[in-house]
């Protein structure tokens, strides 16, 4: 009711999805696995995905004929040395921007809420001093980042890391959560501490050339959303015992649900 609508609306506005269409976009993502949808038949998933793609194709055509200065218009008309994005490239680009632009931020807001509500001393600190929220967001990203692992990568050469031999061509999953809980990098890594001075040394957004371009936006949304939530509901608390909260399986660190009372 809160963690999902805020990020999806923000990314829709940035891309240029018309307000009257945003409820449909929210519904499509909610019905797809990447958006946290419930298990559905392959036929139902195919129907949802095709509806989504058909909508985007029609929107691209409207923007070709009447650009509105938004990101989708820019992508449709982008040209370099006579080369433009074709239909499949546009669909792929806009879909990944929509997905990556909200799914991980939904998880950040939900995980941040849970982390604060299950650590009363840290919650008290940020309530007493809201300026701590920016660092609290960094600590949430370190402690319970939105992604447990990267997507698969492949070794381009034989190599050894920490005594482990990895042959060329081997599939590799980088454990972001493990990295963010490495005692060689963070003192007492299993402690959630919103005043941790080096909290922002996490790799929740990746590293190097693959670092997430949307990281500043995600940080800002997390800061604003959590600050506003705590200010609006001074008695905010879990509506069920903490041990009943469940995480979804997969490379995303996502909650099945987060029932709250206030």
Task: Write a brief caption for the model.
This protein is mainly alpha-helical and 262 residues long. Helix content is 47%, strand content 5%.
Could you explain how this protein is built, in words?
With 262 residues, the chain is mainly α. The protein has 10 helices and 6 strands, in the order ααααααααββββααββ. It folds into 2 domains: 96 residues, no CATH class; 159 residues, Cytochrome P450 (Cytochrome p450), CATH 1.10.630.10. Helix 8 crosses helix 10. It is globular. The relative contact order is 0.13. The model has no long low-confidence stretch (mean pLDDT 93).
Features:
two-stranded antiparallel sheet; globular; Cytochrome p450; 6 strands; 262 residues; two-stranded antiparallel ribbon; 47% helix; 2 domains
The structural class is mainly alpha
> What topology, given as strand order, has the largest sheet?
1-4
- Compute the average pLDDT: 93
Radius of gyration: 20 Å
Low-confidence stretches: none
* Total individual domains: 2
Name of the CATH class of the largest domain: Mainly Alpha
CATH architecture of the largest domain: Orthogonal Bundle
Sheet of most strands: 2 strands, antiparallel
Helix content range? 40-55%
Helical region count? 10
Secondary structure layout:
Layout: H1 5-15, H2 22-31, H3 42-65, H4 71-77, H5 87-100, H6 103-117, H7 120-128, H8 133-143, E1 153-154, E2 159-161, E3 164-166, E4 171-172, H9 176-180, H10 215-232, E5 237-238, E6 260-261
Antiparallel strand pairs: 1-4, 2-3, 5-6
Helix pairs in contact: 3-5, 6-8, 6-10, 8-10
